[in-house]
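step: validate -> pass
step: tokenize input -> pass
step: predict -> running
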Amino acid sequence: MHERNDIDYDRRSDVTSGSGVSPWLVAALLVAVAALLLGYFRPNIRTALHDPGAKPRPVVARGDLADDEQATIELFRTARRSVVHITSLAVERDRMTLNLAAIPRGTGTGFIWSDEGHIVTNYHVIANSAGAKVRLADGATYNARYVGGEAEKDIAVLKIDAPASDLPPILVGESADLAVGQKVFAIGNPFGLDHTLTTGVISGLGREIPVQDSVSGATIRNVIQTDAAINPGNSGGPLLDSAGRLIGMNSAIYSTSGSYAGVGFAIPVDDINRIVPQIMRTGRAERAGLGIQLASDDTYAQFAGSWGLPETGALIVEVVPDSAAEEAGLRPTRETRSGIEWGDVIVAIDGRRIEKARTVFDILSDRSAGDEITITVVRDGEPVELKARLRLLPMFEG
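step: predict -> pass
step: emit ->
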């Protein structure tokens, strides 16, 4: 009886599965039918979409380029030969052979200053490098020698040995007569892309930017602000006016990401034209100054009130003998039997207010030996005006 029930159960299961339609079988049949239909109609669809008579469309004649386009093309064609690609080098030891080898460290841009092979670029492009290579517009590459530089103006000069015929010097303009809104052109090697041209306008003048990697807090004054795209690799490249003349050297960007954000800065050509010949002559910039030592800004800010001195200014601590400052009658701080006799506090130079010592040296860095300046000091609580003629300094004041 038990065995019989088992047999009946099995038979019922067979009958049930045989009398129904399997979902898997239905799905398989639908897929097969769809495949047959698709195979039938697809060639017809393709044939309907094809056009055996398709031909290239006729080209519309361009006509003459606009005057400003032609001017830009000619400007770039002429100026590009004066722009170079710079690769700074680092020395590393090969782990296998232990031999020293020069490897690329970074890239930047420069421009030809003279047909004797002088190349101008940013100081930070080649700072702390073991050497540099310069590639001209025609692709020829030369080893560069470091002539000299001025870190606090971010200007450096290199020299290559190349035929004079391959070294067309860039045209030099001036930055004193620039105007906001004036069209400008930047040529450089952003991200290693050789001889890239970007255009824009002068967005601002008289800007002040910090010197890259400066430990003294030095700034570069009278900087040109532009919206011409400046990206990594553009540093050291020329900023040109519509006549193709150098008016600045692209130096920095303002960006939170490190890439172009619409605000770029260029060192004014008047600074370049003054400092580069000095570097070519002696390897360094000539520094004109007074021959003074000033109290640090932190010390002055901390004690000026208790010393009875002006709230802001630059306190003269020392005057170098036989200097421009001594000749002008500036007084240093002295220690006497009755106590400390405070020196003059510089509060203005040529009408520009002095709030800290750094400002004094920034102003003097833009001047040359022989320039006359008017210094306003506070002496014993009273303002005094003095005239001083700057002299060449053997080393930078600080």
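step: describe -> The longest helix spans residues 23-49.
step: cleanup -> pass
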